[in-house]
Each structure stands twice: as structure tokens, then as C-alpha cells.
Amino acid sequence: QVQFVESGGGLVQPGGSLRLSCVASRSISSIVNMAWFRQAPGKERELVATITWGGSTNYGDSVKGRFTISRDNAKNTVYLQMNSLKPEDTAVYYCWSPGTSWGQGTQVTVSS
User: Fold this and answer.
1) 60-78: per-residue pLDDT in tens?
2) Is 66 exposed, middle or buried (0-12, 13-18, 19+ CB in 10 A)?
3) What is the distance, to the nearest Å, from the Cα of residue 73 to the centroid of all Cα atoms in its chain?
4) Which of 5, 7, 85, 112 has the highest CB neighbour number within 10 Å of its CB?
5) Other CB atoms within 10 A of residue 18 CB
6) Measuring CA to CA, which residue among 92, 84, 35 is closest to residue 62?
7) For the chain, what is the radius of gyration of the CA atoms?
């Protein structure tokens, strides 16, 4: 079973940017759908963005126009570029594909 390791989180001021990375333990070339989720304290896990093997993307309403998901199959990596960050974006971010387990995630904190 493929496993993912997320990185790139941190503390950033409102309006700032971060790029998250998700490295898979094996090739992702055959994985059709990949996604980023997030979970804030006391809240349910929320779908942030999805990307297909062919590069088609979808975004949650709260991040449309600010976040961009991309994938590099040659590097077994999925990215999440986050711009114009808001305090409500504070959460642990996870990448996932159908049939896989949740990883440790990476903490993103947006605060002045």
C-alpha cells in the first residue's frame, strides 16, 4: 500500500504563502485521483483539492482562487501551493488517495 509523507507546513502571517509537498512511497503514475484534505481543531476533516492523473483539478469553495494543486508523477509528489492565506486556513493538511491510510500530515498555522 502506498504511503504519503507531507511536508512544507509552518507558521505564516495572513496574506502569506506556503507550498506543501506530499511524497509517495512508490510511483503515483497509476494513481488516478489524489487529494489534499485538512482538519482544524474541533472540526471535521475537509476536502481542499483534488487532481486526476490527467491533471484535472477541483477545489473546495473556501480555497478557490487561492490554492493550486499539482502533481509530478516523475517525482512521486503532489503539491499544494497556498496563497493569500487566512487564519481560517490553519489546520493539519493531509494528502490522500482512495484506499490509502492517513499520514501524519503537516501543520499550517496562519497568524500574525
Assistant:
1) 999 999 999 999 999 999 9
2) middle
3) 16
4) 85
5) 21
6) 84
7) 13
